[in-house]
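Q: Given only this backbone (145 positions), what sequence would you predict?
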């Protein structure tokens, strides 16, 4: 079975590459999609609509432009993996999880145990909680069988 998997969340580590490489090594028929993971490019997504003197309006326009990609990818995916890293707050990832839940899209959360309490509602709607990319690969391997 072929899956389209949306990879959401933390952009400061190589978790996406680990999952993509691990699934490729297993020969899984999975297409991966993601938001733009280059921080500067994402922050500048709305700059083509005109420069802003207020950081609020610059962020607002860029968030809307980025939402075109994010919402389209989530609507078109079969399931999502949503990563919460320890160093930064990923509010956008929590929003993506809520969007998945609202659409009835299954998702897997990926985070360390020390975030369990903070993410109890997000994990409560998830189909699985993983602590390592290897665990995600195993789930995807099982689903692809």
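A: Predicted residues:
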């Amino acid at each position: 079975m072929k899956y389209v998997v949306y990879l959401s969340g933390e952009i400061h580590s190589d978790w996406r590459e680990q999952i993509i490489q691990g699934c490729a090594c297993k020969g899984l028929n999975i297409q991966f999609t993601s938001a733009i993971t280059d921080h500067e490019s994402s922050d500048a997504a709305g700059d083509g609509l005109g420069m802003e003197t207020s950081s609020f309006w610059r962020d607002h326009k860029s968030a809307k432009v980025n939402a075109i990609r994010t919402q389209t990818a989530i609507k078109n995916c079969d399931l999502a993996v949503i990563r919460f890293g320890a160093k930064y707050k990923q509010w956008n990832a929590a929003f993506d999880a809520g969007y998945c839940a609202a659409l009835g899209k299954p998702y897997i959360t990926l985070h360390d145990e020390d975030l369990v309490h903070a993410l109890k509602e997000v994990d409560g709607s998830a189909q699985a909680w993983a602590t390592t990319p290897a665990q995600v690969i195993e789930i995807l391997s099982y689903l692809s069988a």
